[in-house]
TrEMBL record:
Protein name: Argininosuccinate lyase
Organism, as annotated: Desulfoscipio geothermicus DSM 3669
GO biological process: L-arginine biosynthetic process via ornithine
SUPFAM superfamilies membership: L-aspartase-like
Protein origin, superkingdom: Bacteria
HAMAP family named among the record's database cross-references: Arg_succ_lyase (MF_00006)
Length: 459
């Protein structure tokens, strides 16, 4: 079949060019949106008398049949027809004849592709939000089950102060909660209807753009035709939000990888989410977590690719923009795949409570609490800090922890210290005393879990 735009050409395009600029190999995934968008467009053309209602019905029925055929795997797309938009149009003309040629009235592929990508992304944002909500739900369940599991909190990857595993997991709930918000916010700007922008300068036909927007579930129509066909901000925004999801997953994975090492020994991943070594029989590797960490780089790359593709483009549409799709699709696929596998991986990991607690007891994680104890006895904090520092140095020389010191030893550093010091610096007490909003104390954590569940229900 001749190209749909062959009129002004004397020659066929070189086969290399067909291959080079064809996007059907990747944009075929937009078929459903392309067809639904075309149905709404045709319906509107019929309502407005731009084509007859009968013609509109014929087109809509033809499109419906094509959709059914594609879904049943009965359609083979053609590389020569370039992209999903022209493939569908060509199939329509083959199927219903000359009437099919009226579908593209008052429309360009430039506003059509913008429509399709927006409809696609809207659905994918909803899917990503659902996956994030499921993950947060799982993390909240885990937090609930691990409220009494004390572990060291770190700064500089050095043991700092004791927290609980529940508190640590809740930190990630906050991150993924913000990711959900960002996705929703981005969706508002995705859900704007560009048809009517034409190739760049609108159209001479009296379109009812608002009707098309309503039909397709859009909240608004785009307000400038040049912008409508050249704006890919929404794809950049989504990819940036997806990059943040990946960054959060990657940090979590990094911890899971560390925690499952013998050096930490905090968790053991389930066999179903671990892999072995082809040479070393003893190995059990956290490959899934590593791969998620590795795949975060893909999405950062997708974001960079989109920004770089757009930065030098004059208004309005340029073919460069066809390059938006593989980056965007890759970001969508990667973030979904990673969210899907991450959830059962954390849900099934075995927490080695005792090892976590032991690590929390070592490393002087209660040193700040000893200083706070001295402050309560009237010693200025800077001075208390100095006293405890010297006490820690003493312990280090003797390979002891603070709790191992006798009262007599304590008193060498400050006579403000009494028998009640042992209670004051016990790990359970160190956690329980941190009862500020957002802190690790069991009471604060319980409140945080409740608040997070409520927020999730509303989302
Ligand atoms: N496949 C193209 C894309 O993805 C559709 C728009 C093409 N428009 C054009 N005038 N060449 O961007």
């Amino acid at each position: 079949m001749a190209k749909l735009w062959s009129g002004r050409f004397q020659k066929e395009t070189d086969r290399l060019v067909d291959d080079f600029h064809s996007s059907i190999s990747f944009d075929s995934r937009l078929y459903k949106y392309d067809i639904t968008g075309s149905m709404a467009h045709a319906g509107m053309l019929g309502r407005m008398g731009i084509i007859t209602r009968e013609e509109a019905d014929t087109i809509i029925n033809g499109l419906q049949e094509i959709l059914t055929d594609i879904e049943a795997g009965r359609v083979e797309f053609s590389v020569a027809a370039e992209d999903i938009h022209m493939n569908v149009e060509q199939l329509l003309i083959e199927r219903i004849g000359a009437v099919g040629k009226k579908l593209h009235t008052a429309r360009s592929r430039n506003d059509q592709v913008a429509l399709d990508v927006r409809m696609y992304l809207r659905d994918e944002i909803d899917a990503v939000r659902r996956l994030l909500a499921e993950l947060i739900g799982t993390l909240l369940d885990l937090a609930e089950q691990n409220q009494d599991v004390v572990m060291p909190g770190y700064t500089h990857l050095q043991r700092a102060q004791p927290v609980t595993l529940a508190h640590h997991l809740l930190a990630y709930c906050q991150m993924f909660g913000r990711d959900m918000d960002r996705m929703r916010d981005c969706r508002r700007r995705v859900n704007v209807m560009p048809l009517g922008a034409g190739a760049l300068a609108g159209t001479t036909f009296p379109l009812d753009r608002e009707f098309v927007a309503r039909e397709l579930g859009f909240d608004a129509v785009t307000e400038n035709s040049l912008d409508a066909v050249s704006d890919r901000d929404f794809a950049v925004e989504f990819t940036a939000a997806a990059a943040l999801v990946m960054m959060h997953l990657s940090r979590f994975c990094e911890e899971i990888i560390l925690w499952s090492s013998a050096e930490f020994g905090f968790i053991e991943l389930d066999d179903a989410y671990s892999t072995g070594s082809s040479m070393m029989p003893q190995k059990k590797n956290p490959d899934v977590a590593e791969l998620i960490r590795g795949k975060s780089g893909r999405v950062f790359g997708d974001l960079t690719a989109l920004l770089t593709m757009l930065k030098g483009l004059p208004l309005a549409y340029n073919k460069d923009m066809q390059e938006d799709k593989e980056a965007l699709f890759d970001a969508v696929d990667t973030v979904k795949k990673c969210l899907i596998i991450f959830k059962p991986m954390v849900a099934t990991m075995r927490v080695k409570k005792e090892n976590m607690a032991r690590a929390a007891r070592g490393g002087f994680t209660n040193a700040t609490d000893l200083a706070d104890y001295l402050v309560q006895r009237g010693i200025p904090f800077r001075e208390a800090h100095e006293i405890v520092g010297r006490t820690v140095a003493y312990c280090l020389e003797r390979d002891k922890s603070l709790d191992d010191l006798s009262l007599e030893e304590f008193r060498r550093f400050s006579d403000a210290i009494d028998e009640d010091v042992y209670e004051a610096i016990s790990i359970a007490r160190c956690v329980a005393a941190r009862n500020v909003t957002g802190g690790p104390a069991p009471e604060a954590v319980q409140k945080a879990i409740r608040a997070a569940r409520e927020r999730l229900d509303k989302n």
